[in-house]
Amino acid sequence: MKNNITLILLSLLCLVLIFISCIVGSGSISVVDSIKALIYPLIGKDTEEINEGVKYIIYNIRIPRTLFAALAGAGLSICGLAFQSIFRNPLSDPYILGVSSGASLGATLAIVLGLENIIFGISGMSFVFAFLSVIIIIKIASYGNRIHTTTLLLAGISINFLASAFISLLMIINQEQIEKIVFWTMGSLSNISYHSVIGVSIAVVMGIICITYHARDLNALLIDTQTAKSLGVNVERTKRIILLICTLMVALIVSESGVIGFIGLVVPHIVRLIIGSDNRRMIPFSILGGIIFMITSDVLSRTIMPPSEIPVGSITALIGSPFFIYLLFNAKKRLKQ
Amino acid sequence: MIKVNDLTYTIGEKQILHNINFQIEKGKIYGILGENGSGKSTLLKTLTRINNVKNGKILLNDKDINHYTSKQLAQTIALVPQQTNLMFDFSALQIALMGRIPYQKPLYSDSEEDLEIVKQSMQLTSTWHLRDMNAQNLSGGEFQRLIIARALAQQTPILMLDEPISSLDIRHQFEIMNLLKQINKDTNTTILIIIHDLNLALKYCDEIILLNKGELVAFGESKKVLTEETISKNFGINVEIKDDWIKIIR
What we know:
heterodimer; A: globular; B: 9 helices
């Protein structure tokens, strides 16, 4: 009961943030005009008195951008949750494990190779490279059936380094595309169209359904593989399905917005601290938490230094990396005990 | 109930189990004995299909174990693993409820029936009063009983335990063994247990499966298997057996 009330309150907070995100920005539109443009059609009032430019910005830039931020927040957060369960490691997250960097290398290559205008050119390449990163990480970190925590993190860091090195190289070779490429390494929501929102929303909704469907199995995996097997969980199949759907989500998000880090780490972790590790309860909270975290970061990225915009990836990293360091210290304390 | 035919298990070049044959009957308690590295855990993992059977055959109720679905198997055999290293916060009740996973449909919440069965198995193992505690904060004995409660919630005809008492003090060892005996009596559950204490094995187990270097060296009634001769041969210690009590002599 208490949980349900919290969920309702958090959902309301999401709506408020979505509203705020649509009315503020680095552009020179006044808040009042934005509110008018947003509210008038809803209450059936004539929108003719509103400037066309304002309408365009609200409807074709801010709304898709806000929707995308919500989807990306929810998607990345729930991917973190799922990764933590299948790797049985609270520090797993698509960014730290190098999946996001892999995807961004794929996107960069797609641009350099001129695949931009082919359908699924960028997102397809992102997926292939994100998937390759996952496979490499698992190969490096697994000993028989077990996945070693430290090696997993180190493997992720190596993939991150490797991908960034290749991206820098590609930038130097292709000076004329440098601006486009930089975008993928920093994470930004400035190029979002309805087109991208639709693609990503399909993947994220599929992902959420799939992870919710396997929530109990993921709980058993949090105990350990042997226990999960003895409880009738088809461990290998579950891991494969979850990895595939998460990689797809991350790749699609990254191919539209670049690398946005740490959401999958920070949000599930805070949720777990508050309500415990039962995935069935964590899923709705992580989705809402991800939306809140992402939209807040995006609003900050647009309003801290007007008129210029800070890449949203830097904001999430500014919040996320100290948090990650704090978690590492905690892990160390646990080891000492 | 379980028939093991020519079971061989290798990891890489190393042969862990060699040509094992035996047959488990319903309603008895079987003790699996042997030195460290004799293949006890591997045998149990193979019987629960955590290790895949490649060479040899295991028949469970006259059906090849490989033909069971994961859920069917989990409804037939429950396992208490050797060690559970809990890294995440779960309440004791949440852990015990996981025993119902083999029966639950995805997306449905826990039914009244599930809760009732879990309540009974937690009461039986005296863990019901701990239900709201974080399982990470339980003592060794409490946690072991909780894992047994989870296995009982699976409501299986067969229960397998990998060294459930090895890390417990003597009083808790007896407590767990008495509990298993009671479960065996009340529900006619077949129990396979890996155990190191020869006297407890003699006292509680009906039959002994004795392994040495991956081979089945003796199988049968406890008193007939645990003799001074087999013990000295397979454990490398000299003992004297008097009134069903095994005493080590220097």
